[in-house]
Amino acid sequence: MDIDAWVWWLIGAVGLGIPLVLTAMPEFGMLSVGAVAGAVTAALDFGVVAQVLVFVVVSVALIGVVRPIAARHRDRGPGLATGVDALKGRQAVVLERVDGNGGRIKLAGEIWSARTLDTGQSFEPGEQVDVVDIDGATAVVM
Predict the structure, then answer these.
(1) 64-95 burial by CB neighbour count: b if 16+ within 10 A, else e?
(2) Could you give the C-alpha distances from 56 to 14, 32, 81, 89, 97, in angstroms and in order?
(3) Contact (CB, 8 A) for 96 and 121
């Protein structure tokens, strides 16, 4: 039994797809797409050299184009801070004296318990403070 070249290319594509699933390395998927392109080339009755050339060109092109785009998207941090992360860096108004032991501030329209980052520092009512962290239900200010 003689198997056509395009079938071998498809077998190779599936073989390259298995490590993609097991390792989550997208490069294997790009090589698999290159093997499918090689199978199409073989099905169109091009020679072995043309099939390998199409495989290499398609694979390298995908790796060269898709990887940098994916890296840019992966490296981007979250665009919108939510929850307590959205409160960090905001300003608040002191309602009751805030020191290392505690106090009260008005932050984002709500009353929060607060303490200073530096235990020796204190803020009096009416002063503006910066929220540097949220520790449980307590804002850490400076």
Answers:
(1) eeeeeeeeeeeeeeeeeeeeeeebeeeebebb
(2) 17, 11, 43, 50, 70
(3) no
Residues of the chain where predicted confidence (pLDDT) is lower than 50: none
pLDDT at 70: 83
Quote the pLDDT of residue 75.
Answer: 75
Q: What is the pLDDT of residue 78?
A: 65
Which residue has tokens 């594509």? 13
State the residue for tokens 């090589």: 31
Which residue type sits at 72?
A: R
Output the pLDDT for position 12. 95
Is residue 9 within 8 A of residue 21, CB to CB? The reply is: no
Q: CA 56, CA 31: separation in Å to the nearest integer? A: 8
